[in-house]
Amino acid sequence: MPWPSRKRDKGAVADKKEPDAKIAKTEEETSDKEEEEKPAKPPAGSSKSGWKNWKKTKESESGGEESKITYCHWLLKSEPESRLEKGVDVKFSVDDLKAQPNQTTCWDGVRNYQARNFLRAMKIGQQAFFYHSNCKEPGIVAIVKIVKEAYPDHTQFDQKDPHYDSTSRKENPKWSMVDVQFVRMTKRFIPLSEIKAHHLAHKADGGPLKDMMLFTRQRLSIQPLTEEEFDFVLSLEEEKPH
């Protein structure tokens, strides 16, 4: 039985300090905002050293060949803290996902066209980071995988749902969702502030996070990741937090 929608682009507002905005109905209406954390640049050499070590390992694995930029992984934002929207609590944490039958859920409530298009591009078996958003400390907490490709989002037709869209028609639905399944928790919580420190360093030295959409299109709740971005962020779980 469906549960209240929690996963949508208003959940991707600049974490915590950003007030909730009206759901964007076009990609152009969705403006990019700064994330809450604005950490100072990482200590000299810290991120660069990690990037060089990661790059050396990846080059060894690939024979030194650079891979083409393609999106084969994802980052999905959801709110772990209670917040009422039209009388419905939109909270949905990784623990809520783990409590679902077969640890599987539909990723509903997305109401941004670009994010919807990303949903429609997802393929079965692809992995994504589960990202806690709009909370005291945003960041990556787990890995999930796509287990059902895009199909019509039922919440767009439910007048009692906070994400009801009176302009959508069943014969031509505007909005889609996918099913995701819990894979595992990350070995440690990877905070936004740490990822951003690497992003700032990589902008200077050409590392894999230099164009990460988490910082170029911050408000999107569904974001694609290149293999290099996914692998580098995943490698951070092996490091001690800064």
TrEMBL record:
Task: Give me the stretches of Low complexity compositional bias.
Answer: 43-52
Q: What stretches pass through the bilayer? A: none
Record region (Disordered) = 1-62
From start to end residue, where is composition biased (Basic and acidic residues)?
10-28
Q: Identify the keywords attached in UniProt to this record, alphabetized.
A: Nucleus, Phosphoprotein
Residue span, EVE domain: 73-235
- GO CC annotations? nucleus
Q: What does this protein do?
A: Specifically binds 5-hydroxymethylcytosine (5hmC), suggesting that it acts as a specific reader of 5hmC.
What name appears for this protein in its UniProt entry? Thymocyte nuclear protein 1
- The scientific name of the source species is Cephalopterus ornatus
- What does the record give as the organism's lineage? Eukaryota, Metazoa, Chordata, Craniata, Vertebrata
